[in-house]
Write a structure and sequence with these properties.
Length: 424
């Protein structure tokens, strides 16, 4: 029943957790609640199921496949890490100015709500990113966000553009100790820990100076490589004026997954016994700055049956949040970077609007994923995973207009409690 999703702002772990001794920190899920954000865009979801043409809610775009860091847990590591050189997916391509600005001009003519500059590689390595951001800002009402390692803001003079134009930016840190950060990410004197911390502080200064409303966050992907620094990260940023500190668990995508079926994740015992206590302590240190993807941890611990909560049969969530790769391909989602058979088309050949409007091609690609492969090549806990759960339930209840209308009313009740609504 859809009614079970009416209270999605707080994910409460059941007694199943106690068996593993898990104690999740109490987090008010405002920025990191895909299901709540789906409800905010319920009209668009309903239009899609009524076979009406709809633009994406949010689009991820990779301005660059190259990266000046080498994080071992990077979801796109198979694209740019040196150890994958010579393999099928290795491609350190930089999106050309023609393609990047052409996309910007085209997307401003759509009803897309949000654009997230990500990677791929490090988005700020693209020399045309600044011009692209400023064009979208000046020619549309599309909100923009960015994931970055924060090391290259100085090179292309991005500080003012970022704080004036973006709704949010999250800088990946994944550490709390300079020496360990530099070792983990394989840095040099131009992109190391000291440079990144200096840039974060400078970005905060620009925010205050320009009286910007941008949300500045820092991120920590918890893995076996760095989990012992969870508290170091919290102590580092408790006194730096960032808006939030976000923790999330490492997800091992199929391209680097060494388990037999390419699906297995780090054991639930690791998350329940080693991570939860540290996260709880971090939440005490950080207070209101603390943010965490509760829903991912729930799937890793409670739903650890090789399915990890994937009970839906269709990936409807991907139809509202595609990825534009640095190679110009419009991919189903971020989990299929480099997989050309999971692309709807290339911006070198057609505009985004033309590609997105080709429902025959999109249907063909989704049948490959859902019917033929049956998600065999999809990473667990992928980008559309959480939104898929609620959209699948909406689809199952489309024959109940009373229920859908009730859901629309309920969604209004949480309207003011969701931040960054246009980024699922």
């Amino acid at each position: 029943m859809l009614s079970k999703y009416f209270c999605i702002l707080s994910i409460v772990m059941s007694s199943e957790n106690k068996t593993l001794g898990a104690k999740l920190p109490a987090v008010k899920q405002t920025m990191f609640n895909p299901q709540a954000k789906v409800l905010h865009h319920l009209d668009r979801i309903v239009d899609f199921f009524n076979d009406k043409p709809v633009d994406p809610i949010s689009i991820e775009i990779d301005p660059s496949n190259a990266c000046n860091h080498s994080c071992p847990f990077c979801i796109s590591g198979h694209i740019h890490l040196s150890k994958y050189k010579g393999t099928e997916f290795f491609n350190r391509q930089m999106m050309s100015k023609e393609i990047l600005l052409g996309f910007a001009k085209d997307i401003c003519k759509t009803k897309t709500k949000g654009i997230n500059f990500t990677g791929g590689g490090e988005p700020t390595m693209n020399p045309h990113l600044k011009e692209t951001i400023e064009y979208i800002k000046n020619n549309s009402e599309i909100e923009m966000g960015m994931f970055s390692n924060g090391s290259m803001f100085e090179r292309f003079n991005l500080f003012e553009t970022i704080v004036k134009s973006l709704t949010w930016i999250r800088i990946s840190i994944d550490s709390g100790i300079a020496e360990k950060y530099d070792k983990l990410r394989v840095t040099n004197s131009k992109n190391n820990f000291q440079v990144v911390i200096k840039n974060i502080k400078k970005l905060i200064e620009y925010k205050k100076k320009l009286k910007s409303n941008i949300t500045i966050g820092v991120g920590f992907v918890a893995s076996k490589d760095n989990f012992q620094e969870i508290l170091d990260f919290a102590n580092l940023f408790k006194d730096i004026d960032v808006d939030y500190c976000h923790y999330k668990p490492e997800i091992i995508q199929v391209e680097r997954n060494e388990s037999k079926d390419k699906k297995e994740q780090i054991s639930p015992e690791f998350w329940a016994h080693k991570i939860n206590t540290l996260l709880y302590e971090a939440s005490i240190i950080l207070g209101n700055k603390f943010q965490f993807n509760n829903y991912k941890l729930k799937d890793l611990i409670v739903h650890n049956n090789k399915v990890y909560g994937r009970e839906y049969k269709k990936c409807f969530g991907s139809q509202f949040q595609p990825l534009v790769g640095a190679d110009g391909e419009v991919y189903v989602c971020t989990s299929h970077r480099g997989h050309k058979d999971k692309s709807y088309g290339n911006l070198k050949d057609k505009s985004f609007r033309e590609i997105w409007g080709d429902m025959k091609k999109r249907s063909c690609v989704m049948k490959l994923i859902e019917n033929k492969e049956k998600f065999a090549m999809c990473s667990q806990l992928c980008k559309p995973h959480e939104s898929n759960k609620i959209i699948w339930n909406i689809k199952q209840n489309m024959h109940r207009p009373d229920l859908i209308n009730n859901l629309k009313e309920k969604s209004k009740e949480i309207e003011d409690e969701i931040l960054h609504k246009n980024f699922i």
